[in-house]
Structures are given as C-alpha cells and as structure tokens.
Design a protein that fits this description.
Layout lengths: L21 E10 L2 E2 L6 E6 L2 E6 H4 L7 E9 L2 E11 L2 E6 L2 H4 L4 E9 L2 E10 L2 E8 L17 E7 L3 E11 L14 H10 L3 E11 L12 E3 L4 E7 L8 E10 L7 E8 L3 E2 L1 H6 L6 E2 L7 E2 L7 E2 L2 E7 L21 E6 L4 H4 L3 E8 L7 E10 L10 E7 L21 E7 L3 E13 L13 E5 L2 E6 L38 E2 L2 E8 L2 E8 L12 E10 L1
Parallel strand pairs: 18-21
Antiparallel strand pairs: 1-2, 1-3, 1-12, 3-4, 4-5, 5-6, 6-7, 8-9, 9-10, 10-11, 11-12, 13-25, 14-15, 15-24, 16-23, 16-25, 17-22, 17-24, 19-20, 22-31, 26-34, 27-33, 28-32, 28-34, 29-30, 29-33
C-alpha cells in the first residue's frame, strides 16, 4: 500500500491561554553521566487539562527544520495525543497518535527519591528491549512528561534508559497561563507522518527512476538521460548542493531483471562536465580516449589517468542476481523469491568530488539482453553524522571496469602480464595521509577462471610494495532468495552460492583503503599486479579494479 497524504476528519485541539495555572519544566539529556553537547533543552508546559512538549529553540524560533511538538488533551483518564511536525516554514503536519499512550504498561516499584525537592515514585517499562525507569511526582497535582511515555503517571521529572541515558528536570516553575499553540489542518495517518518526518531529515537526489538498461541497436537518449553502449549505460547531469564535510552521503540502487537471467557487473560512476574525460568515449567513440599499454599487444582504452585525461570515478560497484523478479515463476519448495534487490553504500569519502558541483552521474549494467534490467539510483545526504570531517582531495587514477564493453572497450586483462597495471600521476602539492580507495573483483566464470580462484592483489607505490591481499567473498549463499534463475550444480548447491573473487550475485563490493602515507609534490606511480590465469580456448579471465587517491 502506498501512503500519501490522508486528510482525516479529526477535530484539531485548540491550545489557548487558560485560566488554570500552568507548570513549566525544563529538562536536559545526559549520556553516561555527561551532558550531551549542544543540546536543545526540552520544555514541557502542563496544567490539569493539557500538556505541551516543546523545546527552548522552538520557543525562541531558532529550531532547525524539521522539529516536532507533542500536544496532549486530558479528560479524566482519557488522553488524546497529537504529534505535530514543522517540516519547513510553509509545511506543518500532524497525526493522532493516542494509541501510543493507550498501549503503555508499567511495573510499579517501591523506590522513592527527591528531584528538585519533589517527592518522586518510580515505574519501569520495557520498550524494544530497552529498560526505561521513570521517576514521577504527584506533588504538583498535574501530569506530564518530556515525551509521550508516562504522560498519565504524574509529572515525570526523570527518565533513565538502560542505566546510561538520562533525561532529567533542571527547573520547575509555575506560570499564570498555558501558552497558545498554533495548529494545522493537514492531518495524516501515523505511518505517513513518521515517513514524512523521516524524509524531511535528509536530502534525497533522484538520478534514475526504473530506467531500462538493455541491449538494443538504437538506444534512445532524451533531453536529460543519455544512453550509450547499446543502452547498457545511462548518464545524466546532476547538481549536488554544498555538502558539509561532516555529513554522510549514501548511494542506493534498486534493481530487478527485465528479461536478463544472468548475474552482471553494475557500476555507478561520476565524471566532471569539463576537461578530457570518459565523456569523449561516450560521445566520440572508445578510440578517442588515451589507451594504456603494458606490452601484451592490447590497448586498454580510457582506463588509466594520463596527462589531462581523467578516468571514471567509480562510486559503487554492484552485481545483479540471477533473474530477480522476471524469473520468480520458477518454483522451489520453501523459497519465496524477492522482487528486487537494493544496494546501499556509504560514499562519504567522495564528498569533495560531489559538493556544490554539477557533474555527470552514470550507471551501467553490462548485458546483451533485449529486456535487460530495470534500475533506479538516488543519493541521500545526511547532515553531521560523522565525528570527523571528510575533507580530502579526490583524484581518480584508474578504472578497468569496461562499461563500454558493448561498444568495443577491452576487458581488464592486462594482469596477464607481469607489469600488470601502472599509472603515473602528478601531485601539485604535498599530500598528507594519502590513501588509495581500491575496489577489486575477479572474473572468468569457468572452473579455472579467476572468478572462482583466490588471487593475491599487490599494490606498489613508487616501486615499493604497500599492500597485498586476496579479495574473496564466502557469503554468497546468503543471497539465494535473490537468485531464482541460478543454476543447479548437481551437488545441492546453486551457482549463486559459490564463493567468488570479492563479489556475489546480488551484492555490492566494498572498497578497501590502502594507506600510502604522506606524499611529496611531484610525480608518483601506482602499480597493481595480480597473477591472472591464462585463457583456455575462448574462455579468459579479467579483473575489474578501480583506484581513487584520497588525501588531505
């Protein structure tokens, strides 16, 4: 069921000045005995008939959007609770959430103590495995609390969650009148309310919505979406807002088969609007971009940084499962196939390449199927989630994912030579705490192919070995329900269960960050070697590796 705005016929509460004296309580939050930094003081107003849960910043007009207030009307033992959220200067919504109070149950405990001079009793409840202790007083002949929890106990002066997170009263004062509270006629159901509040807390940038990535002789580009390589690559311009260095950014792809039954390599990438970039390969052909050669007789077009040429910056690599949704009609006892697969990955380290920029954003799924795949892509930006700033420089160095395979781009088979892959680059200034953001997956899907063999990846900087590891995944069987068309191996396993060179059908591949230390300005060289297996007949192996230099 889709939840849009639902206008319920609920009379809105009118909170106006009252002749009944009100009580104001201010609360602060402590975590493990320490005051939470930069917190907004909770402010509760209550009288015998109504309660308002607000905050100091809301009351002074300084609260950032979105912010919420809780309004409670009291009639005997009956409570009516309205949650109100101000999402922007022009948008306010509310919901009737009275059931959240009706369902509260408590254990009464014999403990007592004084808080701000008031005699308090203790109650306890468990919510979502969290033990919450509530200290409340009846000395003031009113009820209220700093949240919806415990509103009918008395006047709650302290709550303690799991013995380490405390909301405690710091001041109680009496007021002549209850404050006037504005209301809204835009009332929605509780689920919609929570969804709209959640979505208002971050920025979402929609890039592609259920785009078809298939192979056709005449792919159709539009005004905003460009299609290349027979329609297996889609690209569009995207304007990113300024992103704080302490923010978190996520990329998310949702994919399902539109006809193709096989596991395919997918990639999300970014490239600048100006300069010599892979856009030349898209618009002018793969031969228009510089090629890398290592003496094995092949040309690897557009894969390596060279002079002014900048390769694709790979944001996220993902792998489609075997025929999700399109082949869900294949029955298997005890299995309920998924309709789509979502890939979500933190890409906050790439903020410098996105913040306050207009760039090309692309997505590819290599396939030769006329139905292909249906996929969506969007980014979400979440402010101030990281404790340390993500301020770094970002320099794409290499990317051997041949996203233009269907337009003649060579596979990443340069690792069959001892030289492997080598790229030189120039640093205009000294670089501090340099790291290589490295993504590696091995391919060659027959029994001796590198897809199923453990191969060591060795990275050298200026001739010195910096890191060596075997990229490998052993958890592919966890994603069986994404793979209805996965082949039966005849031994109780399906082909999607098999361990692979750092990928599984239906997953992303995580980058690794290889510490390179401080680098002086000038020219440097990165080299990657992999003992790739030799071809057998028409079968061959290849490695998709991408590397991005990040530094302060």
């Amino acid at each position: 069921m889709k939840y849009g705005l639902i206008f319920l016929v609920i009379p809105m509460l009118t909170f106006s000045q009252s002749k009944n004296p009100a009580v104001e309580v201010q609360y602060v939050r402590k975590s493990n005995g320490t005051l939470v930094a930069d917190q907004d003081t909770i402010v509760v107003y209550t009288d015998p008939y109504q309660t308002l849960v607000s905050s100091k910043k809301i009351n002074t007009g300084k609260a950032p959007f979105p912010y919420e207030q809780t309004l409670i009307a009291r009639s005997g033992k009956t409570l009516r609770l309205i949650q109100k959220a101000t999402l922007s200067p022009t948008k306010t919504i509310a919901t009737n959430d009275s059931l959240s109070i009706a369902k509260q149950t408590f254990e009464w405990l014999p403990d007592t103590k004084k808080i701000l001079g008031y005699h308090c009793k203790k109650a306890r409840t468990v919510i979502n495995s969290n033990t919450i202790e509530i200290w409340y007083t009846n000395d003031l002949a009113v009820k209220g609390a700093p949240s919806a929890l415990g509103q009918n106990l008395g006047l709650v002066l302290e709550t303690v969650r799991n013995n380490n997170y405390v909301v405690t009263a710091i001041a109680v004062s009496k007021k002549k009148n209850f404050p006037k509270v504005s209301t809204t006629n835009q009332t929605v159901d509780a689920l919609t309310y929570r969804d709209l509040v959640w979505k208002s807390r971050f920025t979402q940038i929609k890039v592609f919505q259920k785009e078809i990535l298939n192979f056709t002789e005449a792919p159709q580009s539009g005004d905003s979406i460009l299609r290349f390589a027979g329609g297996t690559v889609v690209v569009r311009k995207v304007r990113f807002p300024e992103i704080k260095s302490t923010s978190s950014v996520f990329a998310e792809v949702t994919e399902q088969s539109n006809g193709d039954a096989y596991d395919r390599t997918g990639s999300v990438f970014v490239l600048p609007l100006d300069g010599t970039t892979f856009m030349h390969a898209f618009t002018k052909g793969i031969s228009s971009v510089p090629a890398y050669e290592n003496g094995n007789g092949k040309q690897y077009q557009g894969m390596v940084r060279k002079g002014a040429y900048v390769p694709l910056l790979e944001v996220m690599r993902f792998f489609t499962p075997f025929g999700i949704k399109q082949y869900n009609h294949i029955p298997l006892k005890g299995k309920v196939w998924q309709d789509s697969v979502s890939y979500r990955q933190d890409i906050s380290d790439l903020i410098p390449a996105l913040s306050n920029r207009e760039v090309y954003v692309g997505m590819s799924i290599g396939n030769y199927d006329k139905g292909g795949h249906k996929a969506s892509l969007y980014f979400t930006i979440h402010d101030e989630l990281s404790q340390e700033a993500n301020v770094r420089q970002v320099m794409p160095l290499f990317n051997t994912v041949n996203i233009l395979e269907m337009a003649g781009q060579e596979y990443g088979s340069m690792f069959g030579s001892e030289t492997g892959l080598e790229v030189t680059f120039d640093l205009p200034n000294d670089a501090k705490n340099a790291k290589l953001r490295y993504i590696a997956t091995g391919h060659g899907g027959w029994e001796n192919g590198d897809e199923y063999l453990k191969k060591i990846n060795t990275i050298y900087l200026d001739g010195a070995e910096k890191f060596a590891f075997v990229p490998w995944r052993t958890d592919c069987g966890s994603y069986r329900l994404y793979n209805p068309a996965s082949g039966d191996l005849g031994n109780g396993l399906s082909s999607s269960d098999g361990s692979r060179s750092n990928w599984c059908p239906g997953t992303t591949t995580n980058p690794v960050w290889i510490a390179l230390g401080d680098l002086k300005a000038g020219q440097h060289a990165i080299r990657v070697t992999i003992p790739m297996g030799k071809p057998e007949g028409s079968s061959f192996s290849a490695w998709n590796v991408s590397g991005v230099l990040e530094y302060e």
